[in-house]
Amino acid sequence: MRVLVLGAGAVGGYFGGRLVEAGAAEEVAFVVRPDRKTQLDRDGLVIESPSAGAWCGSVRVLLAEELRPGWDVVVLTCKAYDLDDAIEALRPAVDARTAVLPLLNGLAHLEALGAAFGEERVLGGLAKIQATLGPDGVVRHLAPFTALEFGELDGRMSERVLALRAAFARTPVGVEAAPDIRRRMWEKLVFLGALAAATVLMRANLGEVAGAPGGSAWLERLAQRNVAIAAAHGQPVRPEWMEQELLPFFRGALPGSTGAAASMLRDLEVGRRIEADHVLGFMLEAARRAGLPDELHEAAYLHAKAYEARRDAGRLPGG
């Protein structure tokens, strides 16, 4: 299997790097920008992880203009706001044999990718990881849990899905080929939408929010509201997932959950672009379409959009 990963940041660098480390694919290559290519060619890909161990190795790195057909799987790990540019960059690499696996936040990208490459080429997928790319180019894995879930959007257990599962099964990544990947993607958005809304709005991690007066009850109310939104759109979450993963995480009962914060908060705190529309805006509109109370989502979205306006005007602290 030949795997092309768009991006070598926190998500692409971690999952693609683990494939290289395990020798789990015939070939793995990363599509990056020139500055990142220079860094990777010089230092190799470096991963630091408290649970799966550190790894450093040389990797094949390509610029967009070097792309040619012949890849079995293209893994997209760009930010949602970069999707249009990513699609144009990848067109030369996608042919009739290629499956496109997006690991983006939100759901709107599925339609855009289907229109660009054909619906039959697009898989559903999600990544569960807390990681960041440091200014030194090191991929730092911040919490012990790491998992990938992917599948055909029509629920088939295809040969390409099984082959990709077999490749990742050789790595320290938890992997699942899911026949209900659309629902799993909604579950991820339920989780991420609550984590981003809470930590961005309050500018604090979950433990700090929970420790404030009324914080624990507020977090649970936010998570339950997202569960209701998903159900109203025909994607009820699995009861066992809610009871064993979602609610325990927001109650601080899972390893690493008290110190958890959305990557959106980390981006905001250093003045980067954020996925306000793709996560917070999406959930706000979903709440409104469902006729559900929207005050929690409206406050989080307004906060994020006000940050974007201030950033665009060059009025961030230290700017």
Description:
This protein has two domains: 2-179, Rossmann fold (3-Layer(aba) Sandwich), CATH 3.40.50.720; 184-312, N-(1-d-carboxylethyl)-l-norvaline Dehydrogenase, domain 2, CATH 1.10.1040.10. Helix 6 runs antiparallel to helix 8, helix 6 crosses helix 12 and helix 8 packs antiparallel against helix 9 (239-250). Strand 9 and strand 10 form a beta hairpin. It contains twelve helices and twelve strands. The strands form three sheets. Strands 5-2-1-6-7 form a five-stranded parallel sheet, with helices on both faces. A four-stranded mixed sheet has the order 4-3-10-9. Strands 8-11-12 form a three-stranded mixed sheet, with helices on both faces. With 319 residues, the protein is α/β, with parallel strands linked by helices. The mean pLDDT is 96. The protein is 46% helix and 16% strand. The longest helix has 22 residues, at 181-202.
> What amount of the residues lies in strands?
15-25%
Helix share of residues?
Answer: 40-55%
What name goes with the CATH superfamily of the largest domain? NAD(P)-binding Rossmann-like Domain
Number of domains: 2
Q: What is the spatial order of strands in the main beta sheet?
A: 5-2-1-6-7
CATH fold-type name of the largest domain: Rossmann fold
Shape: globular
Radius of gyration: 19 Å
Following the backbone from N to C, one meets helices and strands in this order, namely: EHEHEEEEHEHEEEEHEHHHHHHH
